[in-house]
Amino acid sequence: MRVVVFKKLAYCLPGRDNKEAFTFKKYLTDLAVIGFNLDHNATVKVPNGFTELLSLKDSGINILAVVQNLVKGGFDGKMLEEILSSRDLRKKLVENCVQLVKTYNLSGVHINFEGYKGDPTLLNGFMRELSYRLRPNASVSIALPAKTKNTTWFKGYDYYGLSHFNDFALLMTYDLHWPGGDPGPVSSVPWMGKVVNYALSRGWNEKQLFLGVPLYGYDWPEKGKAKAILHSQVMDLLDTTSHVSNWDAYHGESHFSYINDNMKHYVWYQDIQSVGAKAALAQTKGLAGIGFWRLGFQFNGMWEVL
Question: Residue 3: pLDDT band by 50, 70, 90 thresholds?
């Protein structure tokens, strides 16, 4: 029997990331398969390539369906409000989630509802109904936006209420600095710690929490929006520009700057040290584990520091 003390979850895009899921399965405890997208009728689409991942259950990996309000590349908060505020549609969505678990013998359902600005009691009610139908035979979990205090930002997410209806939450502790903002660490370790502390103060316990860890960085031009950049692209860029990267021990990320076409760029990114620092934070806090966004973005040496 597989004894697990510190869990490692990774989000996976079926089809595109299937090879990585099998290649790195020995490092994973949970695979959160994205692409189970809603429509306005509360129907849940099963993504192509998903069924190929089901055999990973034989390796002891928990397979979770990530049900999300992603429509045409963007999260539709208004659609989600309409579904949650309708008793019939909410009931239909719960039933569709239950059928997913039964049909594919899944370990659970992982809710990733982003951009929700509606009544938090409606989201709580949905999670309560889903929990009643699935637990304890299957897990119910949620991805939560990162909060360090009670704020009007992300007002639709009641940390305290949601703590009662989920086996665990993944804290989306990334994009502290985002493409449209100023350059800086994508997920500063002290900031991540504050997010964890806030969740703990709002009723969650340590073993209910996964720390979200990004496997990407951003390249900010002096003027304009940043673009996402992966570790392999950073290494190529450092080779071609002959620049040296700097490790920021306080934030737990590496960074450097360079000039291209007479414009200065600022890059913050993930490497072995940053993954190790964030895993160490999760372990120090006594959390259930960490969750990576996502397979396909991994790099050499990353798994060995866990």
Answer: low
